[in-house]
Amino acid sequence: MKDAYLGVDIGSISTKGVIIDDDNNIITSSYIWTEGSPIKAVRKLIDILKKDLPSNYQIKGIGTTGSARKLIGLLLNANIVKNEITAHAVGTLTFYPDVRTILEIGGQDSKIILLKNGIITNYAMNTLCAAGTGSFLSSQAKRLGLDVSEFGKYALKSKNPVKIAARCTVFAESDLVHKAQVGYKVEDIVAGLCKSIVLNYLNNVGKGKKIEAPIIFQGGVSKNVGVIKYFKEILGEDIIVDENGHLMGAIGIAVLARKNKIGKTYSLELSDIAFDTKAFECSGCPNNCELLKIYRNNELVDSWGSKCGKY
After folding, report:
1. Which of 77, 139, 215, 219 could lock 104 by a disulfide, CB 3.0 to 4.6 Å apart?
2. 7/107 Cα distance (integer angstroms)
3. If DSSP codes are grouped into helix, strand and coil, which group holds residue 228?
4. pLDDT tens-digit readout, 271-304
5. CA-to-CA dists, residue 1 to 39, 205, 221, 293, angstroms
6. Is the backbone of residue 245 left (phi > 0), alpha (psi -120 to 50) or beta?
């Protein structure tokens, strides 16, 4: 049997999974929508990955990252759980050891990671506002009657991108509607939106950061050729976009699972695992903590939210 390692990146919009071998080659991968239920999404993801995993491979490590990494780490009994910054950096450095800047725009968040000699020197993430992220792009594409997968191609047709105020989703939408109503071409509006996303990212997430080449752009929005165009134009640098850039967090945590394996063989059979969460409010003191208890096969495995440590 050959050894393989599973990495799962659970975000608010999408859930990504990869299985790699000892040489960091991707054996199989999948990208699906989370749809508000990370547990259900991961069960679906694992079923997809299992079908494409050759029978001569055994899972010797599991890692989880993303916003629901701790919850899914308990479900999968993962041997390593790490934040997205670490996972994206490790995944990128695995294939691009000389990278200096990682630009990442996902479904509802965006981040920048600065590196030197393979070490993270600085990073930043967006605020709670999702302006300029994948979900924002999807909603604007729908408003314009376009498929988000074709959004970037429209931007490339434009010769006169309009100015869109994309620092806030509400202002961007009203500005976009106004531009459409006064008669601007769709391609000029789309190009303006793509350009404003880049400017918003650099003025918000990238503010005060020294962006140096080699520069890699990843996350779901890296599939948008219009956004890539304006990153190149505004930064005046070449932008590397890997075909697996949208999976880099999952790849990174799979690499870490390989490096931190504990000699255990994991089963990907989740149908016989009962996994449940129960929420309640503790009234033991004025804090009135909202608590969440996690049960795996009816056994309490963790509890979150207690400020005093009682639970």
Report:
1. 219
2. 19
3. helix
4. 888 888 888 888 878 888 888 888 888 888 888 7
5. 29, 45, 38, 37
6. alpha
Q: What is the pTM of this model?
A: 0.86
The single-letter code of the amino acid at 18 is: V
Name residue, tokens 């699906």: 32
How many Å apart are CA 18 and CA 6, to the nearest integer? 6
What CATH fold (topology level) applies to the domain 97-241? Nucleotidyltransferase; domain 5 (3.30.420)
Q: For residue 223, what are its two tokens?
A: 């599939």
97-241 matches 2-90+250-259 in CATH topology: yes
CA-based torsion, 245, 246, 251, 253: positive or negative? positive
HSE, side-chain direction, 13 A CA sphere, residue 207 = 7
Q: Which fold has domain 2-90+250-259?
A: Nucleotidyltransferase; domain 5 (3.30.420)
Residue 180 buriedness (CB in 10 A; 0-12 / 13-18 / 19+): middle
Name the helix (H) or strand (E) containing 255. helix 248-259
What does the alpha-carbon distance between residue 136 and residue 141 come to, in Å, rounded to a whole number?
Answer: 9
Convert the pLDDT of each residue in 93-147 to its tens digit.
Answer: 999 999 999 999 877 788 999 999 999 999 998 765 666 677 777 777 777 777 7
Q: What is the DSSP letter of 94?
A: H
Per-residue pLDDT tens digits for 1-50:
999 999 999 988 889 999 999 999 999 999 998 888 899 999 999 999 99
